[in-house]
Amino acid sequence: MNYEGFCTRDALVNWLDDLAGQVSLVIPVNDSGFLLYRQVVSVADIAWLVGESGPSTEQMYPHRPVLAVKEMFFPSTEPLVKIKKKAQQVLLEETLPDKPQVVFGVTPCDARGVRIMDNIFIEDLPADAYYTRRRENVTMVGLACQEMGESCFCTSLGGALDDPSDMDIMLTEFEEGFLIQVVTEKGRSLLGKQKFYSDTSTLNLDQVTNRATHAAISPLIPIPDIEAMPRLFNHEIWDRLAESCLSCRICSYVCPTCRCFDLRDEMLPSENGYECYQRIRCWDSCSRDAYRRIAGGHTPRATEAERLRNRIFCKFNYSPRQYGLEGTVACTGCGRCIDACPVNIDITEILGCLAEVVNE
Ligand code: SF4
Ligand code: SF4
To answer: What is the extent of the structural domain holding 314?
Structure first.
């Protein structure tokens, strides 16, 4: 590993405090009992930095927030354009976001999710202007996980607890503080603003106990081969797997790579004699029963089984093929859908069943 330097916990806190005064700083915070990425004005707002004997990250492990970092680039509800109308005159006002933002404490699985979203929203042309603008404005500072959560299975999908590859800067905690890796030029320019760290020449890196590399790794779960997936399409197993699904859509909303959306127009209060409207986009989900319903009322995926099958195929077959995900699938193994599902549908059990069927 190539480390740029290391910093103490106090130095990190001071750096973050300074950043909060300069840019929009987003950090996982405890929001009404839920760990969520939220903007803070001071590091005092950061739940996990409050330790009895000074700054500590102990309270935040496993520290995966309830919602994925995708909401910074692809918010749950986003105004796209404002429309003003008076007689025959129609004015359009774009609402492209342009605020620089630093997101701190991103988990490696979430950063991987962002890479997958980049493939879909930016690299698959035409690029989505709203997502692209937000993405350009954000610098991601990652924090290596120190242990795998009960539902995490990132390592089964090629991830690692300290994988820096999709970050701008990566921090890994050790006894004395944090080791710092600079991954992109964007990361370098953020660090360059203030020298709050020392170089690693005074550290014996072989002796440093980096908790991420010593963490216990959960047993790997079987993942069905992308080439074998089409054989599963008409299998009766989907009825059994989806038996209890409520079509509530929570699994999609918490997922770092689900990106279906709906467009809606809504009326706003009038302004200076103009009627005002705005077009918004909001998260949607293929788990919803009316999703894909067409004029005349026909729904091509009418049953829970067809919808669950679509969700799994989207992640493990359709998206990798359509968007050139370079050997990865559109699931990061974050386990959020497992934790959130009200009827305990577990994607690792689904994948295990599918792998068994494939090997029959
Ligand atoms: S499908 Fe589930 S485990 Fe996979 S990325 Fe989405 S929320 Fe995480
Ligand atoms: S969270 Fe569970 S019940 Fe709800 S749509 Fe997803 S799989 Fe079905």
So the answer is: 5-358
